[in-house]
Every structure is written in C-alpha cells, then in structure tokens.
Amino acid sequence: MKMNDPDLSHLEQIQYRLEVNDFFYQKDEVVAPHSSLWGDFNFSLNGILEYKIEEKMYLSPPNYGLWLPPQTAHTSIALDEKETHYVCIRVHPSLCQHFAACTKILSIAPFLRNVVHEILGHQNKYSLEYQHLLQVLLDQLKIAPAYDNYLPQTNHVLLKPLLQHLSNPELFHQNLQQLLHPIPFSERHLLRLSQQELQLSLLEWRNRAKIIYAITQLRQGKTIKKLAYELGYQHSSSFIEFFKRYTDQTPAQFRDI
C-alpha cells in the first residue's frame, strides 16, 4: 500500500509521512552540506550541534530543535566533547504546510522528548500504537513555540562587540549591570537596540549564552558547585533552578543522560 492509497485512513498514512531516526556524532564531526525534498526537524538529546544554513549560523542545544523547510541546504558540526545523540524527524511535503516556510528554532517540551524516546524504542513500526505515537509527535511539533534563532547574532557596530563581551565565560560571574556600566549608553537605549536587532533582551541573550556554556562544561565533567560559582551564583541551588528553567532538567539529570 502506498502513502496516498485511498484505502488507508489518515492515521495509517502518517507512518509514511513522518520518519524518525537518530544518529550519534563525535566532537568536530561534520555533516556535509545537503538538502532534502522533505522538511527536517533536528534536535539533540544531549550535546550541541552548530548549523550553517543559508550563510547563517544556528545553535541547536538540548530542548531546542531546528525546523528546516524542504530543500533547505544545511551543514552541521558537533561541538560537544562527548558523543552527541541526535534525532532527525523527516516531514513529508504534504505536512509542511503546518510549519514555517523558513528556518525556525522550536522549543521542545519534556513530553515531546518522551514521545520521541518511545518512538525510537518501538519495535513494530506498523502497529496502531506506533501510528498514534507519530500523530502525537506531529501535534506536539505543530504547537511548539518557534523562534528565529536560539542565540541570534548581529553585525551592529555597538551590539556585536557587546555580545562578545557578554558571552565571555571569564565575565559570567559579573552581573549584567556591572558589564553595562562602562558603556556610554543608557540601559533603555541598549534594551531597545537589542529588541530591534536580536528580538531578545540583553539579559535573556546572556542567560542563553550561559546555558550553552553550562551544557558544554557539564558534559566535560565540571562539578555543579564549581560551575555555579563561575556563573556568578553563590549557592548551587540558585544555579540548579536557573538551569532547570531553561532545560526542564536539573544539571545532574542532564549530565546523566
């Protein structure tokens, strides 16, 4: 039976319209430039991949995935010191109308991750249960919050060097006000500029930069206590709360994946 066979129900057809595969990448392993006639939703189960799409760079950390419309050329490289477990969900063109016509970052809820784990571990890909799981996965992708970039960049003459400053791990122990104090512009002006150029506040942008750093350091074996201190937290509990707010996991849970 074929995908568009009229004898197949909508639920039965979904197994021919969604494909879920996982891959394992070593540090600095590069996926050569390629594109597909299908849409792709790619996300990491543990480490971080960096994508180059249409001359723009995108980060794909855990809990945020990349939606790529059909025929979107892309290449990627694994950044994590440990093996990165990655998932690719291929979406048939007939279903791509439900998603953006350009590259987007999608937020991944814990429930969506759990559904993917169930799908990957399922033995019978032609069972009714498997078809139901695929339908739930599709519904979750449809409602996932979408963003232009997880950690957007800019060439703005003022913001570009400021972002480099804000993302310097050696300065993470300082708060945002301390870092902005020497700059001869008001915080209101900088906030307006960041919203215009990045669609994020400077505080949110820096928090995301901290999360990226924290993920890489946890995977390299740094202790939670030491990492909390580096990020400017006097108590590990405050860092744990911050990390969980962005990843839906505690640092210990993430490290043990």
Describe the structure.
A hairpin with a 2-residue loop joins strand 4 and strand 5 (56-60). The longest helix is centred in the last third of the chain and has 18 residues, at 202-219. The chain is an alpha+beta fold and 257 residues long. The protein contains 10 helices and 10 strands. It has 2 domains: 10-147, Regulatory protein AraC (Jelly Rolls, Sandwich), CATH 2.60.120.280; 159-255, Homeodomain-like (Arc Repressor Mutant, subunit A), CATH 1.10.10.60. The two termini are 39 Å apart. InterPro entries: AraC-bd, Homeodomain-like_sf, HTH-like, HTH_AraC, HTH_AraC-typ_CS. This is AraC family transcriptional regulator. Keywords: DNA-binding, Transcription, Transcription regulation.
Annotate the secondary structure layout:
Elements (H helix, E strand, L loop, with lengths): L9 H4 L4 E8 L4 E5 L4 E6 L4 E5 L2 E5 L3 E5 L5 E5 L5 E8 L12 E4 L2 H11 L7 H16 L2 E2 L11 H8 L9 H5 L6 H12 L3 H18 L4 H7 L5 H12 L3 H5 L2
Antiparallel strand pairs: 1-8, 2-7, 3-6, 3-8, 4-5, 4-7, 6-9, 9-10
Helix pairs in contact: 2-3, 8-9
What is the domain tally? 2
- Unreliable spans are none
Overall strand count: 10
Mean pLDDT: 89
Shape: globular
Please report the number of helical segments. 10
| Termini Cα gap | 39 Å
The succession of helices and strands, N to C, reads HEEEEEEEEEHHEHHHHHHH
Let me know the CATH homologous superfamily of the largest domain.
Answer: Regulatory protein AraC
Q: Mind describing the biggest β-sheet?
A: 6 strands, antiparallel
